[in-house]
Structures are given as C-alpha cells and as structure tokens.
Design a protein that fits this description.
Layout (H helix, E strand, L loop, with lengths): L65 H4 L6 H9 L12 H24 L9 H15 L3 H6 L3 H19 L72 H6 L21
Helix pairs in contact: 2-3, 3-4, 3-6, 4-6
Amino acid sequence: MSSSTPTPLPVLQADCANCFALCCVALPFAKSNDFAVNKAAGTPCKNLRQDFRCGIHTRLRDQGFPGCTVFDCFGAGQQISQVTFEGRDWRTHPGTREAMFEAFPVMRQLHELLFYTAEALTRPAAAPLHPALRTALARTEALTRADAKTLTALDVAPLRQEINALLLKTSELVRAKAPGRRKNHRGADLMGARLSGADLRGANLRGAYLIAADLSGADLRGADLIGADFRDTDLGGADLRETLFLTQPQLAAARGNAATRIPAHLARPAHWTA
C-alpha cells in the first residue's frame, strides 16, 4: 500500500471562529443520548452565546451534548457565513436567517463531497481516475460559490451519485494493493462484534454498523470506512493509518487511546484516554 497520507484542503476544515454558529441554530436535534434537549431547526441552542460561541464548549459531553462533539461541517459554516453571505450574520441582518439556514445543509453536503474527492486525488493507485476526479472536484467547488438561492434549489443527489461511483472505483483500486484476502463487510451489522486484533487491511467496511464493536489492536490500513458507524467503537491501539475516507466525526464518535494510530490530517479526539 502507498504510504501517502490524504490531506484535505484547508477550506474543508471547520473554522468556528469565522462561522455564525450555523450548526447550533440551523439544524434540529432531538432529546436523546446525543442531546440533552429538543431543539427545532432555525432555533438557537440554549447554550449559544451572543458572540456565536458555545457557553459549554469544554463541557459538552458532561452536560449531555456529545452529539455536538462529533459533528463536523467540513468548513461549510465559514463558507456560508463569509462567502455566500459576505460576513453578514443572522442576528445583525435578520433578513438573512431563512436563506442562510436553508443553504447551510446543502453547503455541508457539497463540502463533504469535496473532502472525499480531494482525498481520492491523493491516492496514487487511483491515478487512472484522477482526471474524472479533478473534473468532479472543480464542478463541486464551483457550486460552493453559488448564491443562496441557487444553493437552496440545488438537488445534490445526482452529483453525489456521480462522485460516489468514482469513490467506489477509487476504493477498489486502493484496496487491491492490500496483502492477503480482503474482507467484504459492506453494510454489515457488526454491532458489538469482537474484532480485537483483526487483520482488516483492505477490508470493505462501507456503511458497516460497528457500534460498540471491539476493534482494539485491529489493523485497518487500506480499509474503506466511508459511512461506517463508529459510535462507542473501541479503537484502542488500532492502526487507522492509510484508511480510506475516514472522517473526524467518526473518530470523535469512537473510543481510542494514545496507542491508536490515525491519519496525520485528523486530530486525536480530546476525550480519548491516554
């Protein structure tokens, strides 16, 4: 397998300091293990301060809001705030509220697609697909520069299908470089599975349910993890280097430790143990 490390474009990393707390207002959440209260879309979270900062940011998990710690907009928040609406916030300019809150989820989808496409372009094994991937990246980037009216009217599904086909082919080419027999667990129900120390190099774990599974010490290098559910998954000591399409929210949803090896472009979650 290639030793290259995927590095997302800087614009695809959330910059909360340049966002008008759109994830804390535009999106709804329901009282559950992830959120302590119900909140309707378009309503500011009760913990949101006037300066667009979270009043319990350092205590979110303790206060019953772990769902907030695993959300990532892939930079869509600052794009909407600073580019689409040119720095006009929804408090000072209340006329922007509806359009801003409707455009944000669309922008997040576009930025997520950019994240995956940009990573695919870093994979040497996917070189035959690079021209098509670059075209898809350019088209998607162009859409992120559209005005709010265009964004809210946009049907992202066809673009997602087109890019997903390229990502599937990328996955096949990259995983073919993995040694041994490659396991196919696409969409599998692996909740609570005991996979400690498992050799999952080059495995297809797309959309797999790994909730509360034991993957401690597992070797996941080259595995396709797009859409895999890592809630409460034990990743202690696991090797996640060179995994395909792993995101920050997936890491944040899991449990890991200092021995867990992760891609260089992702951050070790603060709640992981030493």
